[in-house]
Amino acid sequence: MNRIYLTQADDPRLAPYRNLRERTLRGEMIFLAEGDLVVERLLVSRYFVESALVAESAFERVRPVLEEKGRADLPVFLVPDALVNMVAGFPFHQGVMAVGRREAVWELESLCPVEEPSRQRNPLRRVLAVVPDATKPENIGTVFRNCAALGADGVLLGPQACDPLSRRGLRVSMGGALQIPWLKTDDLERDLCRLKHDFHYRIYGTILSDSATELMNLTWSPRCAICFGNEYDGLQPEVLRLCDEEITIPMACGVDSLNLGVSAGIFLYEACRRGHS
Predict the structure, then answer these.
(1) Which residues pair with 230 in a beta bridge?
(2) What angle do CA 189, 155, 236 make, to 5 degrees?
(3) CA nearest 192: which of 150, 149, 229, 224?
(4) What pTM was estimated for this model as a whole?
């Protein structure tokens, strides 16, 4: 850790942290981690950490993590509390932020490793969440948090899905997007076909329909990819056409649907808990 004390809001080294409320960071090659836990998970992730910003009042609290898990030359900008608020553009109470560098960390092959020949008769359980086009960072963040908590193996995002490294998405996921292997594909249909034919996954589509297999009656495949539709329209026809089985959670009391993050948690829990029979 290379501690650097800064006192001027216009210091160019603070540029990545400036006016965060007004910036989406879209198109920038960086992302922001906020808070003790998310920053810690960034430090131990595969992403390169460019710097950290720490309020004076929080330094002794976060110092052990920065010293133990940050690299020796990591710039840590120590600033007065009032200056943190001035730079960020809003009252920032969490005390620590860090800048990660965006990069393509995972490929489809790393989400779906091929089984060794000795395992092909008794394959290891693998569970992927597939999110074609969810647009709310809160939902994406919850899916990643569910995957991290329940033991899913990865997330495949479609081209229209929102950014899991957005400030909101990363905060809601509690750093899950830094822990779970994920890939944002430029051609979801192509990669779903690859999951089926090259990696032997069974594709499940989650829908609201009396004709779908109810969750309690479902027998999971050893390798399953569970597709979750967006907040408004569910799964699109082009995705449903590639699904091997449509599955559903029965609803009671006239409820017509569940929040995406909630339903994903239920399906993922069952898939990860029960495995295959």
Answers:
(1) 234
(2) 40
(3) 224
(4) 0.89
